[in-house]
Every structure is written in structure tokens, then in C-alpha cells.
């Protein structure tokens, strides 16, 4: 497992295993967001199995499956709501952590400077520069 903290309250990771959840909790995370559609992964990692494992440890679990290249406004709103509702740090995972970074940036447009929304994920190799104009447009909408 590779925890990549974008901020003190939000980290992303490539796909995790159920046995990783104890370390996620020990690292201080209270909410886990699964951004990976079940169709991409083996049944043992599908939402119901991961949710049961997370909740057994007292973690809040939210599934917001993001289709590669098809993140919608509803997806962004759901991710924002899950992050805002969390009572502590949020850990999100997908195949590589990229989709989790993209949806985080989109959800924070207008809340943080665009340069940070692009620069923080870039430290981990996530290239969000192509979203700059979209992030800036969202920021001006308030």
C-alpha cells in the first residue's frame, strides 16, 4: 500500500486490499472512499467486501465509482459531500490514485488556488495540468 497525502486531510492510493484497512485506520484516517468501479477488479475487492472490512474496523466507507475519463458533476458533488462530512482525514483509492486526485481537485475548485490543485498531486506523478482551464472556470462559478 502506498499512501500519498495530497493534504493533511486527504490522501490517495492505488488499489488496496482488505488487509490494508487496519494500517489505514492506524494512520489516522476515518473515512475511506472507493473510487474504483467493481467491473475493474476481482470480486474479492468489490464494494460490498471492502465496505464490510472497513466498517468492521470502525471506518466510514463511501463508494463513488469513477469511470476513467468520465467523471461527472454528480461524481464531484458526491466526493465533495463525502469529504465535507468526514469527521477526520479521508483516504481515497482507485487503480493508481489518479482519478481520486482529479475528483479531489475538481471538488476543491474555488476552495484552493488552482496552482495547488495541480501542484499537490503532481508531487506523486499525477498530471492535472490539462484540467487547469476547467478548474479555473469552476472556481469563477463559486
UniProtKB/TrEMBL annotation:
Record's signal peptide: none
MF term (GO), any: hydrolase activity
Every Beta-lactamase hydrolase-like protein phosphatase-like domain range: 2-110
Annotated InterPro entries: BLH_phosphatase-like, Prot-tyrosine_phosphatase-like, Rhodanese-like_dom_sf
Protein name, per record: Beta-lactamase hydrolase-like protein phosphatase-like domain-containing protein
Amino acid at each position: 500500500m502506498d499512501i500519498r497525502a495530497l493534504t493533511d486531510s486527504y490522501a490517495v492510493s492505488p488499489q488496496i486490499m482488505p488487509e490494508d484497512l487496519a494500517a489505514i485506520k492506524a494512520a489516522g484516517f476515518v473515512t475511506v472512499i472507493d473510487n474504483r468501479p467493481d467491473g475493474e477488479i476481482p470480486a474479492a475487492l468489490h464494494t460490498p467486501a471492502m465496505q464490510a472490512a472497513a466498517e468492521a474496523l470502525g471506518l466510514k466507507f463511501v463508494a463513488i465509482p469513477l469511470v476513467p475519463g468520465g467523471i461527472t458533476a454528480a461524481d464531484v458533488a458526491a466526493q465533495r459531500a463525502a469529504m465535507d462530512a468526514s469527521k477526520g482525514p479521508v483516504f481515497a483509492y482507485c487503480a493508481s490514485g489518479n482519478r481520486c486526485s482529479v475528483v479531489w481537485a475538481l471538488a476543491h475548485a474555488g476552495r484552493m488556488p488552482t496552482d495547488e490543485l495541480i501542484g499537490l498531486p503532481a508531487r506523486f506523478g499525477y498530471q492535472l495540468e490539462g484540467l487547469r482551464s476547467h478548474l479555473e472556470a469552476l472556481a469563477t462559478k463559486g
